[in-house]
Amino acid sequence: MSIIKSVMFDEWRYWRRTKVATTVILIGIALALASVIVNSIEVRQASAERTELQRISEQTFFDQPDRHPHRMVHYGHYVFRTPSPLSIIEPGVDAFTGTAMFLEGHQQNTAMFSEQRQSSGLTRFSSLSPAFMLQVLVPLMLILVGYSCVTREREAGTLHVMITQGVKVRDILAGKFFSLAGSGMLMLAPLAIASLWAGAHGESLAITASFVLGYVVYILVWSAIVLWGSTISSRSNASFAILIALWVVLCILVPRIASTTAATLEPSPGKLESDFSVVEELRALGDGHNASDPAYEKLKQDLLNQYGVDDVADLPMNFRGVVLTYSEKKLTDVLNKYAEARMDEELSQAEIARQFGWLSPMVSMRTFSMMIAGTNLENHHRFLREAEELRFDFVQALNHAHEHDLDYHTDINRYVNDDTAKAARVDASHWQVLSSFDFAPESAQFRLSHSLRYVLQLLLWAALMLALIKRASRGVM
pTM of this prediction? Predict the structure, then answer.
């Protein structure tokens, strides 16, 4: 162990003397710290703003005066997704999928106000998240720091001297590895601090600990990759070229190939094609605003037979409200069918891309990070489903008020004059049917259990690099 410590301390002393490695490490720490601070401020402000906007939106809905119930169906309501505590480090898909939705009758709107969709192609790179820093830039900095850790000794002849004096190769490589890993841990320190902040703001200890440990394993994997690249090379320039090529392949090309392969193997129809299919199917359902539409003839006849009357005006409920309730249910079933199909396609594409984690530690780390932080695609889909459930519930509750609390004759004559328009209103107490919307990440147990596959990918990479270093050590002289 004393030999390993000596090698490790000698490596650090060399870095201090050359200044280059020290400068790279300090730059890495500064970038990581700056990204954490900036993202923490932005996420905290976003969380407070969205919480306040959610409260205002609900209160505005409740404070509406007496109205025709169907006016409130189209008045609609906004819901906002507050960021998870760990999104200060890992924003995941949240920056691309939108954070707010407008809920109204007869249609499902998409999420709006995504950060990246509102930025130009160049400004997308201006947002340096801590996760991107750790997943992509820290490996590059480890390469800049340690590409010559073994080749330097070989070129200077000191490696041969140490071995002939009885120093074991494995002790030399272990000391070099721990020096590299130590520099990586320094750049990881801001993430650990940010994770403590997330824990203090509601995230569970198990999640924050797993999140940090995942990045520790990732740093160890890349430290091993750098050590292996330097061990198998005879010269420093060759080691640098090999490691830079590996970084480009593992951090740039493989993730890009993963997304392209996923889109190719699991193609999805274009928006226009999907929209035309939805419109065609909805047209067959009939127009819910027109109670005389032939599509509701059977519904009308069934009700007339059930209550033994000859005209809808004699029914004990408002037939127009019945039609709206019925049509909204049918319409929602169709919209949900297409929405679920689209989400299944997106998830299938994501699953294909995630399999490339077996080929790149960066892909496995990115997926693990989003899973644990609660900023993955599945979490976005859950937001869409919960928002749709709220939309359907309050729209149907308003349709129920239209059906049972508004007289049919008053309803059909509401456009005659101002007096009939005022008479065709229901009391504002009916707006209390709106439920509060409070979106939160999945439980800690759920997130941990669904991230095990990606932990296995990282551990496999660690085992692979250990085996490669052990094999490369046999040829060290």
Answer: 0.90
